[in-house]
Amino acid sequence: MLGAIVGDIIGSRFEFHPIKSCDFKLFTSTCRFTDDTILTLATANALLEQRSFGECYHDFYRRYPQAGYGQCFSRWAATKTNHPYNSSGNGSAMRVAPVAWVADDLEQALDLAAQSAMPTHDHPEGIKGAQAVAAAIFMARSGAGKLAIRDFVTERFGYDLQRSPARIRPGYAFEVSCQKSVPEALCCFFESSDFVSAIRLAVSLGGDADTQAAIAGSVAEAFYGGVPAAILEEALSCLDPFLLELCDRFSTRYLADILG
Fold first, then answer.
1. pLDDT the model gives residue 257
2. Which residue(s) pair with 89 in the sheet?
3. C-alpha angle 246/248/252, rounded to 5°?
C-alpha cells in the first residue's frame, strides 16, 4: 500500500512529461501526490472503517477535488451517483493495493479487488486489472516467487508478462486502459532487482508514469519486504496530516507484523 503511494509521488512529475530512461532523480520539488494516492487511501479507509468503497471514493474526492482525476471519475464523484460508468481504465488497479494486505487468502483478495473496482470500473477489463494487481501483491506478501506470481496472473487473466521493459519501452506511449498498462507495470516488477528499480523501470516506459509506478511499487513493496526507509520518509513528507494519519493507522493494523 505504501509502495503505491511512493510510486505515485515519484512518478507524478513524469505523467505528462515522459522519460525513456531509468536515470532520473527520484524526488524533486515538483513531486506531489495525485489521485492514485488519494484513492488508494480511500480504499484503505473503506477497509479500516468497514464502509462501502463507493462512499469513500465520493468522500475523498470531495476532500481533494483537484488531485488530477480522470474526467469520467470526476463526473461520477461530483454528481454523487452510485451507478458505475463501465470503465476499463487503470484507476481500478492503481487504488487496489490495500485489499491485498487485508485479505486472509488469495480468493478473498480477488473478491475484495472486484468489490473495490465495481463502484466505477465495472467493465470486465477494469475488474481484471484490479484483481491481477491484488493477486500479485497478495502472493508476494505471502512469499511466492516471481515465477509463481507471473504464472498465476498469466493463466488467470491472460496478460502477456514475458516482455522486458527494454522491449516494451521504444514503442510505448501514454495509455490508461488496464489491458494496456497493468501488464506493462507488472513486467517492470518482474524485471526489477529491488524496490527502487521497479519504480525506475515503470517510469522509464514513458507512459502513465505515476499510475504504472504505483502499480509496480505496490507489488515491489510486498515482494522486497517494504519500502526503503529514506525513500518512504521523503515520500510521506509530501502528504498532509490527514493522509499521514490514515497511512499510519493502516500500516499499524495491517503492515507492521508482515513487514516488520
1. 55
2. 177
3. 120
* Euclidean distance between CA atoms 208 and 223, whole angstroms: 23
- Give residue for cell 475488474: 127
Half-sphere exposure (CA, 13 Å, Cβ side) for 25? 7
Query: Per-block average pLDDT, block size 10, for the chain (260 residues)?
Result: 97 96 97 98 98 97 96 93 94 98 98 98 98 98 98 98 98 96 98 98 98 98 97 97 97 73
- Could you please state the CATH topology (level 3) that the domain comprising 2-259 is classified under: ADP-ribosylglycohydrolase fold (1.10.4080)
User: What is the Cα–Cα distance from 244 to 239, expressed in whole angstroms?
Assistant: 6
Model pTM above 0.85: yes
Cell numbers describing residue 134: 491484488
State the pLDDT at residue 252: 94
> Where in the chain are the domains?
2-259
Whether the Cβ atoms of residue 222 and residue 17 lie closer than 8 Å to each other = no
Q: SS in 3 state form for the chain?
A: CHHHHHHHHHHHHHCCCCCCCCCCCCCCCCCCCCHHHHHHHHHHHHHHHCCCHHHHHHHHHHHCCCCCCCHHHHHHHHCCCCCCCCCCECHHHHCCHHHHHHCCCHHHHHHHHHHHHCCCCCCHHHHHHHHHHHHHHHHHHCCCCHHHHHHHHHHHHCCCCCCCHHHHHHHCCCCCEHHHCHHHHHHHHHHCCCHHHHHHHHHHCCCCHHHHHHHHHHHHHHHHCCCCHHHHHHHHCCCCHHHHHHHHHHHHHHHHHHHC
31, 238 contact by CB (below 8 A) = yes
Strand partners, 177: 89
